[in-house]
Amino acid sequence: MVLLGSTLVLGILWSNSASAAEINRRSPQAQSYMRRGACPDYKDYATVRHPPYTTGTYQLPFQRPAQECRLFTSDAVEDVISTMTANMVDPDMARLFENCFPNTLDTTVRWHVDSDKQEERQSFIVTGDINAQWLRDSTNQLSQYMVLVGKDAKLKALIEGAINTQADFILQSPYCNAFQPPKASGLAPTSNGQADTVHPTYDPDVVFECKYELDSLASFLSLGNQYHAATQSTTHITARWILALKNVLNLISEQRTSTFAADGSIQNQVYTFTRTTTRGTETLNLDGIGNPLAANTSLVRSAFRPSDDAAIMQYFIPGNAFMAVELQRTAAALTAASQSDLAAEVLALGKEIEAGVWKYGVVQHPVFGKVFAYEVDGYGSNIIMDDANLPSLLALPLLGFVDVDNEVYKNTRKMILSPQGNPYYLVGSKFSGIGGPHIGITHAWPISLLVQAMTSSDDAEIKSLLNASVNVQRTEDYTRSWFAWANSVFAQTILDIAKRKPDLIFKKTEKKA
Ligand SMILES: *[C@@H]1O[C@H](CO)[C@@H](O)[C@H](O)[C@H]1NC(C)=O
Ligand SMILES: *[C@@H]1O[C@H](CO)[C@@H](O)[C@H](O)[C@H]1NC(C)=O
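Structure tokens predicted for DUF1237-domain-containing protein:
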């Protein structure tokens, strides 16, 4: 199982072996870390329990790195930790929050440049145990800090830097999912160790992996939209950001090309991917283009899923729903920035994709009624399942695509939260929940329980999910000791429950503001 919270760990060997020249090229902040000497690799640090332990049932450890090894600090974040944990009933839950909420800042800000000029800010946010930045993960890793940008200018600059760095990645290789440290950071690129043949080609010093996933691009838009919602500002919409947006629009247009033209001839596909592998989920069928897709559905292909597994049918419904919402939010931000022509184009595209999801992505199930399919091909075939990774069907209301009370969503939720309805609903002796083919059929993911809690208004259901999420920390059988996205989702869930259902987690007498 992905160990959610105990995780953390600070990472990064700011290695002993760095030369003086290498250190000097880095940001002042990174230089100071490096000169302090090597902090333990958080991937290892996180596998060991560190004191002090809680007085709770599970005696959970304190897994934040030592202060001098934290990569980025924020007073506003420390304030939230103190206020939240002071009033929580369960000391184990409080400890998990304390470990998880700052995890992105503590351990994953591998490079950050602050500057008086917003457009010069940069932030490289690694996923955790792999020294590369995923577009999707980094957006999710920062999302719990958005409410604090008005209180902490440093944090605001960090997020502005992340928006710029993501835009730079998309300007260089819009089809790719994970990226190397920017050259200016002086950090060395690493290899993913795979033999991939990918078109369009890319520079391996820029790209860590080039699986085309529609939700990576939606995550880029989402980071800007979250910033706009939190600040009411449109200063992130720079000339460079607009060029990146145009790359996204161009990619969407390329990825709506069906396999066959109306006369039956085969159409050229811009993106192809094959890998030398024994796993079907790591390469694409039909010599790298994926299984056939019908024309004129309004839907956009996604070669891979947010788990980085190959899609079976490339009209991936959660990714299309996510993109539809983020395009419409982007249109609102563009309007606020007086970019009305571009806003109109982006809004129309978002609405088209939204209509495509309702027309092709909703199917009649023999037991559960009308439900959202996970993937469709536009010919009428579909895949019924859900995967723990976000975006998922379970998360559709959190993405802003549909209300939790919508009938189709309610039917879908019932289906994907049952082992009879969802082949990847995995039941174990210690833990049950949605998993996915990425890790295999023996491990459910805590992320799915957290999303289930955030999409529920049932007190008993939320309580038991939170309990299970805390309880799973005890297990010895997990797959990743340092996974900042999962840690962030735990923190986001606790903040969500604090707002919607404070009585479930706080002491009754001293209610949290
Ligand atoms: C898709 O629709 C357009 C416009 O109606 C049409 O020209 C084109 O032939 C259609 N494509 C296919 C493959 O049917
Ligand atoms: C919490 O989870 C544990 C382990 O699954 C279980 O034994 C316990 O009864 C649960 N407590 C509550 C309040 O649900």
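Residues 340-360 form the longest helix (21 residues).
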